[in-house]
TrEMBL record:
Protein name, per record: L-rhamnose mutarotase
Source species, domain of life: Bacteria
Organism: Mucilaginibacter corticis
InterPro entries membership: Carb_Metab_Mutarotase, Dimeric_a/b-barrel, Rham/fucose_mutarotase
GO molecular function list: racemase and epimerase activity, acting on carbohydrates and derivatives
Length: 109
């Protein structure tokens, strides 16, 4: 098992943040299937103000390249991603078009 932590900002608008959270109360079944079929065994998203933190646990078959290719070929995932981009904004310093940014672990107890 591997664990990855990623960050992303939401548009700093209380109404949009509430809508975003509502979508995540019950994600589309196709999105759930895409996550699981991509090798992600657990995923949690936390919010602090308009900043999101995602923790993913993955199995041995997971890779970001493989998951990206699967998502690019899945019209329903692309529909979801386009819809979510209404609520999201890139982190300062993110590459153009980059959403979730992989975080570096700097401490472990």
């Amino acid at each position: 098992m591997a664990r990855y932590c990623l960050a992303l900002d939401l548009v700093d608008d209380p109404q949009l943040i509430a809508e975003y959270e509502k979508y995540h109360e019950s994600i589309w079944p196709e999105i759930h299937d895409s996550i699981v079929n991509g090798g992600i065994t657990n995923m949690e998203i936390y919010r602090c103000f308009n900043r999101l933190f995602m923790i993913m646990e993955t199995n041995a078959s997971f890779s970001f390249d493989k998951k990206g290719a699967m998502d690019a070929a899945n019209p329903k995932v692309q529909e979801w991603e386009n819809l979510m981009w209404k609520y999201q904004q890139a982190l300062p310093g993110a590459k153009p078009g980059e959403k979730w940014v992989l975080m570096n672990k700097i401490f472990n107890l």
